[in-house]
Amino acid sequence: MSTADTVVGVDAEVTVLARGLRKTYASGVEAVRGVDLTVRAGETFGFLGPNGAGKSTTIAMLCTLARPTAGRARVAGADVRADPAAVRRRIGLVFQEITVDAELTAAENLRFHADLYGLPRRTTRARLADTLSLVGLADRRDSLVHTFSGGMKRRLEIARALLHTPRVLFLDEPTLGLDPQARALLWEHLHHVRRRHAISLFLTTHYLEEAEHCDRIAVIDGGRIVVEGSPGALKAAVGTDRVQLRTADDPAARTALRERFGLDADAGPDGLRVHVPDGAAFVPALCAGLGVTVLSVTVTRPSLDDVFLHWTGRTIRDAETAGGAGAR
What residues form DSSP beta bridges with 229? Predict the structure, then answer.
């Protein structure tokens, strides 16, 4: 019996488990290079990485849309190789592209999905009303989807993916192309979905602010997971707070920072910059003990982009640019 089988057998709360997952295409491109994952019931888990990092390919293998070249994976208790039909019955999936039928109403889209999953008509009526209400579309159930905004279509896709009560909801770049307001509203509904149904949310994203919604994230780059943990823990591990200050006399302030606080400050057009473990606690002491008039001071906590930079050697934006150039 494999380690994966043992873990899942002992801990029924594990909804996604992958060990050594790989995908190599016929062209020789190795898109995923030995991914290990563990996602528990009720957890929001995110893949953070640029386009081309292997996020969507991993999702495709976990959802049985692509066959792994090597490795093992179990999703909602079923093996993706040995029993793909069971995996599909137990998961919901929201693709990057909008896939609802624009010429049908919201209710018709959901009824079609229910028929595909063989749901009884009586069950479908209750679930249809419940899921539309859950995503804030109850009043638009009989509206044609081509009248919906992009955010409303996304919410309808989430309702459709929830109709058959999956144990895991996979979302591949769920807010791609949405404006900030629609993105915030979608996340409000996703949090409500998770609380209401206690399901696992597994999403891919390259939006740094979106990854903050996750309980845990895995930074993936070049087909490999380079680090994993909660957003807070990952940010705390990579470094210190950045304190930016302007003073009445920056050269004198730079000397005082070194002599009185033991800090070497970087000077630039925006003033002086130092790094300290706890910026909020440092600022009062700085203002009281610097001996130079402080005109302004800002504290910046480490970001997920700092995490990505720390572990990959470049920011996620640089990686996006490089990925796009490589694709071209």
Answer: 217
